[in-house]
Specification:
The chain is mainly alpha-helical and 114 residues long. The chain has one domain. It is built from 4 helices and no strands. α2 crosses α3. The chain is flat and about 65 Å long. The N and C termini lie far apart (61 Å). The relative contact order is 0.10.
Length: 114
């Protein structure tokens, strides 16, 4: 696959525990502002992950420009610690919604008509 030429220049992503530890070690207004900026960017990352789910999965080669951009976006998103927790929550939330819908269907089937 095609590698991002800048990936070697970047440090590994920080998880929530590492960010909390940084705040505990340095409770300055600058670190506080940076952590709010991280939170804002995490929200953009989450929205990008949600958006990419609307498109079918295609390979990098043989696809359109859109497919190549989506491939790179998905490749970068898969290593985001923030999304790993958010994705688990979304899967659990969707499973709970499906269970509730099935329970509601069963309840509706057993109620008398009329």
């Amino acid at each position: 696959m095609i590698n991002d030429p800048y990936s070697d220049l970047l440090r590994p992503p920080l998880d929530d525990d590492e960010l909390r530890d940084m705040w505990a070690r340095n409770r300055s207004p600058e670190v506080h502002a940076l952590l709010w900026e991280v939170k804002r960017l995490q929200n953009i990352v989450r929205r990008a992950w949600q958006f990419q789910t609307f498109f079918p999965t295609q390979g990098y080669l043989g696809g359109s420009t859109r497919d190549m951009v989506l491939w790179h976006l998905r490749d970068e998103l898969k290593n985001e610690p923030y999304l790993q927790g958010a994705q688990r929550w979304m899967e659990e939330h969707e499973a709970e919604q499906q269970r509730a819908a099935k329970a509601s269907e069963r309840k509706d089937r057993h109620q008398p008509k009329g």
